[in-house]
Amino acid sequence: MRRIIVVPCWLALLALWIPVVHAHPVPHVDTRWDSLAPGLDLGFFKGPWPTPAGDTTIVILRMDPQHWRPQFLCLSQAQDANGLTAKEWCERDDLVAVTNAGMFATDHRTHVGYMKSDGHLNCPTVNQYQSAVAFDPTDAGESPAGIFDLDVVDIHAVIRDYRSVAQNLRLIKKPGINRWSPQERMWSEAALGEDSAGRLLFIFVRSPFSMHDLSRILLSLPINLVCAQHLEGGPEAQLYIRYGETEYDFIGSYETGFWESDGNHHAWPIPNALAIGPRR
Hints:
Elements: E1 4-6, E2 34-37, E3 40-46, E4 57-63, E5 68-74, H1 86-93, E6 97-100, E7 115-117, E8 120-123, E9 131-137, E10 145-149, H2 155-161, E11 162-168, E12 170-173, E13 177-178, E14 187-195, E15 200-209, H3 211-220, E16 225-233, E17 238-243, E18 246-251, E19 272-278
Parallel strand pairs: 1-18
Antiparallel strand pairs: 2-3, 3-4, 4-15, 5-19, 6-17, 6-19, 7-8, 7-11, 9-10, 9-11, 12-13, 12-16, 14-15, 14-16, 17-18
């Protein structure tokens, strides 16, 4: 199996690149998707201006929930005493990809915001976050997965209709509205998006951007993005992909006020993960 540990130099991974530019507004970017399997595609994009670290590569794993099953993995329902890295979660359950499920509390077990995993309740508290991802519908007629704006849809209706739900900070509201205000803080980012065809987009960028700027960039890409939510930032952000002969281990680093360095090359344990597995 070909294994690639992704640290600051990612240029060798790119199937296509465009020059870094400093101008605004964000330019349109073209790329091609690499098909890993039916309903599973991997794309690499370039940010349009330099950041304090890294080469601004944006990685997007696109998943069709009609072909693949998203799922949560929670330390609170596992036998492990400590959290696992995305790679370790993936290997433990023989999955295809794993990223962060969202931010977690100081007990390193509980999700920040409401969360249940296939009926298992990790966190019962509904907070002010305005985005929820849900899958495993109770009614076969419902969409198999989706991201919901909680100022449009009542979260209790989402909880009723889906067995797996996680509430997270919103980045982009449907139908493509940047909801993050400009700020100086920036970080490596793991995010989750949905496109106009209902496919989930696992998004990772090691180079630090403000979330306002990253949302602008994502909306400018030819990926038909309609909404997105923040999962995790800084050195805890990660995305691990393993399918056939392809393996990528994307690891975050920089975070303003916490880890202002591109020097993190090791995945940190995470207590809750969002994964992709085969739909049986």
